[in-house]
Every structure is written in C-alpha cells, then in structure tokens.
User: Fold Periplasmic heavy metal sensor from Dyella acidisoli.
Amino acid sequence: MNRFALRFALLGLALTVASYVPVAFAQDNAAPANSNDASTAQHRAPDPQKQAARLAKRLELSDDQTSKVTAILQNRQQQLASVRNDGSLAPQDRRAKIRSIQHDTDAQINALLTPAQQTQYATLKQNMKERQQNAHNASGASGGTDGGPDSNSH
Assistant:
C-alpha cells in the first residue's frame, strides 16, 4: 500500500475512533450551557456518509459494500448519541458501552470485507491506535512515560 493511501486510511480510522474518544477540536461551542451536556459537545461523531466514502477509497469497497458500511456507521452514530445522552450512566459505564458499540461496528464492517480488505482495515485501525497513543503521550500525559513495555512496542 502506498504512503498516500495509508495516510488517507489513517484519517478515516481517526474519524472512526474520534466518535468515542474525547477530542478538543470536536468541541461544539453552540452546545447548550447545561453542565451535564458539556462533555457531550466534545463527542461529535463524523458524518457517516463521508466516513464511508473515505473507507470506500482506502479499502476499494464496491458500491454494495459502501452502502452497507454507510448504514452500519449511521446506526453506530445513533447508538453513540443515545449513550452520550443517557445521564444515568456512570462515566466508566458510558466508556464501556461506547467501546462495545465500536467493537460491534468493527465486527459488522469486517464481516462485509474480503480477506485483503480485512487486512487493510486492521492495519488502518492499528495505525490509528498508535497515532492516538502518541498524541496522548505528547499532550502532556504526565506519569505515563515509565519506559514500560508499551512505551516502545515497535
């Protein structure tokens, strides 16, 4: 896979992961002033159609695959919105549900892919995970650089 395609793949995966990882740049300043909704504004999911189009390019999806991926991503977006709007959930429960939704979404998408596409998709997800960890470590996560086995996994 060429470097250009890999970068686009990472972008698509970043958008997928951004739907369940709080990111400062996704904050919506027009959100209601209710303090319970403050964290919800930071968790805006990317547009499912745009995300599916990016994945279609990176994974060379057929039109049928693209339409099915779009439906899966739209469903995920609805589920995530429901979880984020559920004020009765404790933060750790909310994170667990969001992770579960993401895992289910990945499984559904994987089921649509050819073996070669599955390999590419796994690579995209792994690269995105590494980028997020690097960004998290670089953003001032003090105490997280103990030199343990996860600090240099390459």
User: Anything to note?
Assistant: Residues 59 and 117 are 6 Å apart (CA to CA). The chain has five helices and no strands. The chain has one domain: 3-131. Helices lie at 3-18, 48-59, 63-84, 91-112, 115-138.
